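Re: the multi-chain job from yesterday

Posting the exact lines I submitted so nobody has to dig through the queue logs.
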Amino acid sequence: MHVIAPRAGKAVPEGFRRLIAIEDVSKRYADGTVAVDRLSLQIPDHSITVLVGPSGCGKTTTLRMINRMIEPSGGTIRVDGQDIRDRPVNTLRRSMGYVIQNAGLFQHRTILDNIATVPRLLGWSKQRARERAADLMERVGLDPAMARRYPYQLSGGQQQRVGVARALAADPPILLMDEPFSAVDPVVRRGLQEELLRIQSELGKAIVFVTHDMDEAITIGDRIAVLRTGGRLAQFAAPDEILSAPADPFVEEFLGSDRGIRGLSFLSTRDLELDSSLLLPLGSDRRETAERLPEGTSVLVTDTDGKPLGWTEPDDWDGDTKTLEPAGPSFEVGRDSLRVALDRAVLSPTGLAVGVDSSGKVLGVVGQERIAAAIRAARRGRKADAPQDAAAVKAGR
Amino acid sequence: MNVLNFMQSFFNDGSHWHGYDGIPQRVWEHLQYTAGALGIAAAIGLPVGLVTGHTGRGGDVLAFLSAGARALPTFGLLVLMFVWLGLGIVPVMIPLVVLAIPPILITTYEAIRTVDPSPVDAARGMGMPEARILFQVEVPAALPLILSGLRSATIQIVSTATIAAYVSLGGVGRYILDGLYQHNYEKVAGGAALTALLALLVLVLFWAVGRVAVSPGVRRRRAA
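And the result, C-alpha cells for all chains:
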C-alpha cells in the first residue's frame, strides 16, 4: 500500500483513515542484539491493536519506536503518511497519549494536575486545563472528590485510571499503552479492561497496546500481532482467527492448551435453543409436572418473578425452597458467549446451564450436548460474518 | 556543672551584649560567613549535581573529587590560603566552600539519580522538554534529599566558620579563640554554646523550608 505523504501542517484529507504504518522497521543494538527484526504493521484508527509475545520479543521496543522513545536502526514509521522523524519529537509525543505500567504519576502533583499535564504543555491556561482534567476524571470513572488528592492516597487500579485520563487529556488521536494493567490484581484488571473498551467505543482512538498476557490480548484486541523472540512477527490477525487458526507451532504453543475453549468467547448465545419444559414456577402444580416428565428428571424451581431458586426432582420435593439444590451461576442469553454457557453447564449439578434475560428472569435451560451442537453450527456459519459477530460479542462481554 | 556555670556567667554579663565584640555583632558576622560560603557552594554543587544526576553521567568523577575534597583538612587549607593570600575573607571562604560542596553535590546527584524512573519515562513520553522534566518532575521528587544535603553542608559550615577568627576575622569563633588565649573559659564555653545554638537554628530553618517547599504528596509518601 502506498500513501502520499501530506506535507507538514496540512490537514489530513477527508476520508483519510488515520493510520500508523510500521514499514520494515528494525532495532539492532551495538552489542549485536536484535530487538525488532524487519517488522511491518498497519495500525488503523477506531481499533485496538495488541502487541503480544514472550519477554524479549520486542513488543515494548516497537511501541516505544512509535513515539521515538527509541529510534529504529532501519525502516520507517509513518503516521497519516508522514514520517514521524519529520516532526519535532516533543510535538509528536504530545499528539500520542502514553500509558505505562505502574502509571508513572507525578507524586508531588494532585490527581487533577497530573491529568492536566499535557494540556499545560500545549499552552492551555491553568483553568482550562483543570476543567478538561475534571471532565476526564468523570470519563474514566474516578470520583471527583479525588481531584485534590495525591497519588499515594489512591489504589493501584485508581492510579492506572489517572494514567489513562492523563494520556487522554489533550484528546490525542493515538494512544500508546505499555503493559498498563500488568501490575494490578486480576479483578481490578478486568474492570480496567472493560473501562478501556467502553472509553474506546466512545472515542474511537488508534490504540496500540502491549501485553505479555494472551488472555488480555484476546479480551481487548481488535487485532493481535503475536511477536516471537528476536522481534519477528509470527501472526497478525483478529483474535478469533488467531485462536481458530494459529499460523505456526510457536503461536499455538503461546495460546496454551485451551485455545478451543477460549475461542468460544467469540460465539454468541443468541441462537441457542433453550428448554423451558424443565421449569417449575413456585405455586404451580408439581404433581402435573412430575407426571409430564420421565421419572427422576430434575426441574428448575423459579420464584414468582421468574428468577432461579434451585434444582429438584418434583416427585420427592416437599415444597420447601431450602431443600433445593442451588442453581449456581447463570448466563445471559445474547450477551454472554458460548464459553460462558458451556462453563455454566459444567458447573451445574444437573449438567444444564440456566439461561436468563437481562432482568435475571429464566428463559430456559440448555444441556452440554445442545451447546456443543450450537458450537458446530456457529463454526460452520461463522466464516461469512465472523468479524462483526466477534466484535458484537466482545463489546458485550 | 562547671561548663553550665561558665555559660551562665558569659550570657549574664551585660558587656557581652553590645559593641563590636558583642554577641549580636559576632552572630551576625557568623551568619554572613555561613550564608556566603553556603551560597557559593550551592551555586557550584547544585547545578553540577542536578545535571550529572539527570544525565546519569560523571558519577564516578564526582565520587572521586568529593572523596578528595573531604580528605583535605579544613584548618590546614585555611593556613595554606592565609600564607598564600594573606588576611581577609577569601582565605576563609575557600576552605568553607571546599568543605560544603561534597555533601551538596553528592546528595543532589544521588537524589536525582534515584528518582523513580516511571514518572520520568511518562513525562518524556508525553513530550515534556528535558529541562522541565528535571525541574518539574525530578527536583520536586528529590527535594527532601537535596534539602538534607544542603542542611548537613550548612551545619558543617556553621561549626567550622569558627576558624575565621584565626585570620583576625569575627564570628562566634572569636570568643573561643580569645577565651583560649586569655584563659577565660567563660568566653570559650559561651562561644561553643552560640555555635551549637546556631546549628540548632539551621535545623529548625531547614525543617520549616521542607514544610513549605516539599509537596504533601512527596512528604507523606516518604513518611508512609
